[in-house]
Design brief:
Layout (H helix, E strand, L loop, with lengths): L1 H15 L3 H13 L6 E5 L5 H9 L4 E6 L2 H14 L5 E5 L12 E7 L8 H11 E12 L7 H21 L4 H11 L4 H9 L3 E8 L4 E7 L4
Parallel strand pairs: 1-2, 1-4, 2-3, 4-5
Antiparallel strand pairs: 5-7, 6-7
Helix pairs in contact: 1-4, 1-6, 2-3, 6-7
Length: 225
């Protein structure tokens, strides 16, 4: 599915979020910046937007992005080449739930709109914890669910009716943008996700809600096994 929509993925992301997704990524990287990681892992990097945002603000950080979709990675490689970031950022095809890295080798990790696509969320988070050094930080940016009226009703109408329609028209993929609202609905956001992070071994877990709760930035810290 992600291979099929990769050519239109960035256009639709920015169009359907009215470019707010760029602001969310920037805020997450600004929260990461004080930790000054030397080696950063971007899980489910997709077309590389989160990794590129990190590269702009963490110029001395070596970044590795991984994704299971070769179509998405091909777009990411073209963007990195165009921006002259190939030496700072590398992207690899890999499974988020079976990371091809040694234990304790990254200073930080980020995931942008990717954890809800993990087949096994707990296993994916445990893998991230495994490859992080003790004390390393994880920032997750993910969709969540607004709780206040009337924004809650407006959001759900848009997500269930407008977003799938526009997604189908632009991407020509009937399932991809029906899948998106369904995956957001099923994702355990907020305190539920903080509890899952804790079960995976992370501590000092925090949630920062964004734009009336449309999205959330989660901060978590790895500890020694």
């Amino acid at each position: 599915m992600f291979d099929s929509i990769s050519p239109k993925y960035d256009l639709l992301n920015h169009l359907l979020s009215v470019n707010i997704d760029k602001i969310w990524r920037k805020k997450a990287i600004l929260k990461l910046k004080p930790f000054t990681p030397k080696k950063l892992l971007d899980i489910a990097t997709g077309t590389g937007d989160f990794a590129i945002q990190a590269g702009k603000r963490l110029t001395s950080t070596q970044i590795t992005g991984i994704d299971i979709s070769e179509g998405m990675l091909n777009i990411a490689r073209k963007k990195l080449q165009k921006k002259g970031l190939e030496k700072q950022i590398e992207v690899l095809k890999a499974d988020s739930e079976n990371l091809p890295f040694d234990k304790n080798c990254f200073d930080a990790a980020i995931v942008g709109f990717g954890v809800r696509n993990f087949e096994n969320l707990e296993k994916g988070l445990a893998e991230i914890h495994r490859v992080l050094k003790p004390g390393a930080v994880l920032f997750v940016l993910e969709f969540s669910k607004p709780e206040k009226t009337p924004f809650k009703q407006i959001y759900y109408f848009y997500f269930r009716h407008i977003l799938p329609l526009v997604g189908r028209m632009v991407s020509k993929d009937k399932s991809a943008y029906t899948y998106l609202p369904e995956s957001v609905k099923e994702f355990p956001a907020g305190n539920d996700f903080l509890n899952i992070l804790a079960d995976a071994g992370f501590v000092k877990n925090k949630c920062f809600r964004q734009t009336f709760g449309i999205a959330s930035i989660y901060e978590a810290h790895a500890v020694a096994d």
